[in-house]
Design a protein that fits this description.
By secondary structure, the chain is mostly helical. The protein has a domain at 1-56. The chain is built from 3 helices and no strands.
Length: 102
């Protein structure tokens, strides 16, 4: 997870620099606010991943430079075989959203 939070913090710094450059070039206010919010969102995700990494307190297999592929083997979680809810939601979304004619 060290790579993950470094990636997001780097992305936040990149967006912050681009925001300042865009402001001085004479960018529009909407673009400036979108870039600023993108920087803050990347910083928030980076902080969450960093905080989670510190709370776990162990080196994950993907962070071990001498790790093997088999180190990450094992159960990854439970995945439902099928569900009817996506069909039901898409059916009612199709019936609810008006279509434009014309």
């Amino acid at each position: 997870m060290k790579t993950n939070y470094r990636l997001f913090v780097g992305l936040a710094v990149f967006y912050a620099i681009i925001t300042v450059v865009y402001y001085y070039v004479g960018g529009e206010p909407l673009g400036i606010s979108c870039l600023l919010l993108s920087s803050l969102l990347a910083a928030m995700v980076g902080y969450y991943v960093w905080f989670t990494d510190r709370r776990i307190g162990v080196t994950l297999p993907e962070d071990n430079l001498e790790g093997e592929i088999a180190d990450r083997a094992g159960e990854q979680g439970f995945f439902s075989p099928h569900s009817w809810w996506p069909f039901v939601v898409s059916l009612f979304a199709t019936l609810t959203v008006p279509t434009s004619t014309g």
